[in-house]
Amino acid sequence: MSLNARFAVISDLHIALPQTIWDIPTRFHLVEISIPALELVFNHLERLDLDFLLLPGDLTQHGESTNHDWLQRRLSQLPYPVYVVPGNHDVPTLLPNERSIGLKDFPHYYRQFGYDNPDQLYYTRKIFPGVQLIGLNSNQFDQTGKQRGCLDAPQLAWLEDVLAQTKDKLIVVMVHHNVIEHLPDQAKHPLGRRYMLDNAPTLLNLLKAAGVNLIFTGHLHVQDIAYHQGIYDITTGSLVSYPHPYRVLELRTDNLGNRWLQIESHHITSVPGWENLPEISRKWMGDRSHPFMVKLLTAPPLCLPQHDADKLAPSLRNFWADIAVGDTYFDFPDFPPPVRRYFQTFSAMDSNGKPAFIDNHATLLLES
């Protein structure tokens, strides 16, 4: 089947009405701009004749019912279909409390946006002729109430059945937590693994067996495209965090029947009151980076002494901002050789060590 579709991805919106904004001095992202930034994106997208829009989680600041209410009303006004999945911030607790909704409440807010069965936290929908979307819930809670990224057994059984029944379609999977590593040893690193799906290998095996090529994720707040055994995990940075990105993508089929995905990234550069948004948000992130960089330096595999970490951390002030941009090459020639080599591994390189700048603008061949 010939596929030609245009769609967009906006991730980690963290919508926060002014009266709900928390004053958290350590947060990297700017929820203060969430609504005006989203409106600017919608203004752009409404001129593009989109076929659909994907929102891979963290729709709200921290699961507030008023923010979910506002967003679902705003999405219902758009001229194209929208599909969502929950992020960890959308359902921060298993049961509702005075501040946020509970896990099972989420589908009831988004019945128009994928959840035709509001009693189930995952779904599948035909979203375009020849394209089937599978929206997964990666939010689980252990016996102590701690939230983790995982697909439970009933969801995996449902997914296996859906994959077996879906034939001759391009299957697109959307889930909040990362499925393929976007950072070196992300699944093992104490700072990186919380952004990964705990049972990612199980999901990848199911998708590979079914010939699935495309996964859309969020959560990490970076622009990155990861590839593993025929599958792309396209994660999109947060709209409220530097560099304030979103993506516009086109599926097309050539004369030989090959399917291609063209990806273009766009950025919000100004909102009222924040006229030089990239400069402000990059500085905002850098000003809050020192504790995070010290943790990275003192954690495995570097395990540097605190004194050495404190000495090197200022040189890494903009490291996470540069990770978030994507397509960055890192080198710190004044660092000790083992530390220098470690940070070089975060560079945008292919398996042969050559530059591979595909995180923001790329044309990907989808293997059949």
UniProtKB/TrEMBL annotation:
Pfam families: Metallophos (PF00149). It comes from the Bacteria. Residues 6-222 form the Calcineurin-like phosphoesterase domain. The keyword Cytoplasm does not apply. The keyword Cell division does not apply. SUPFAM superfamilies: Metallo-dependent phosphatases. Keywords: Hydrolase, Iron, Metal-binding. InterPro entries: Calcineurin-like_PHP, CNP_phosphodiesterase-III, Metallo-depent_PP-like, Pesterase_cyn. GO terms for molecular function: hydrolase activity; metal ion binding. PANTHER family: CYCLIC NUCLEOTIDE PHOSPHODIESTERASE CBUA0032-RELATED, PHOSPHOHYDROLASE. Belongs to the cyclic nucleotide phosphodiesterase class-III family. This is Ser/Thr protein phosphatase family protein.
